[in-house]
Target: Glycosyl hydrolase family 43
Amino acid sequence: MKKILCRLLLAAGILAAASVCAQQPDPPGQVHEGQKPVNEAYLFAHMTHADYGRLYYSVSLDGLHWDRLNEGKRITDDYRGHPDIARAPDGTYYLVGNRGVVIEIYSSRDLIEWQRYSNFTPDLKSTPGYSQAMPSVGAPKIYFDEPSKQFVITWHTPHVKGTKEDAERYWTSQRTLYVTSKDLKEFSAPPKRLFDWEMGTIDVFLRQAEGKYWAILKDERYPTLDWVTGKTVRIASADSLLGPYKELSAPISPNFREAPTLIPSPNGEIWYLYYEQYPGLSYGVSVADKLSGPWYQLSGYTFHRKWDKYSLPPKVRHGMMMTISRKQYDGLVQRFGVDPPTKQSP
Model:
């Protein structure tokens, strides 16, 4: 019926056709009226462009439209880093960050109050085959693996200094390292390389789904005609937690995107992969029904409601998204308060 109406309006040259027919199809993965969502709500723990490396919250009920909490103020003053959170089987949440080469871990039972839990300083130069590692820990990520009952913490460490003439060689030299732990008090030693590729990788996190393990990463080589995949989000798979990771995908994002984060849709059948267009310009979303793809991008961040299929508060930066219950969502909103949505053009 809508298609017929659009054709009639367009044929008649009526201006109302623009508002009636401009609406694009909605993304897959949403629940229909009367259906109960598999995933009730979502939390986005992130930084902001104006306050880089600090902890802020936004929330969503559909995984697509996000509202800022706490009037845009920090959730805690103690945290430093690129926020990443894992949930242990006992319901405790662990937040990882870093100050320099010291990896810091915080714990919480309710995602509201965070306490310092432990610190860990990896001996970077003891990494097998990577004695040239520089004293640098970038964007640590934390993952709890249910089958092995252990945590994995990943981060990136470079081995070449940048120069004024070639700053990019520093970023190209980034390699992803990891340690494991049963209790986040004692850690495996020495750190190891996660990938055997000689390719710059940063912002790596792990997930298990669809019978495999997946490493979502940023290809940190600078894009050229010889390396067209540079500065894009890609994905690789493995049969076991620590690899070897193979079948590195084609780019899921455009060039100059980073800080990917992955959530399942409300109906549990679709994946939403977010990534930042840096520095703090916007966020993009790619969609697939399998992590192996194919992936396509949603329309958004245009600030025109009839075109945008997702929206985030302005100037949000690196972080992670995760599913939470409606009860947890209500508790966060009650504790911090939710900001009115950003006004958009009609």
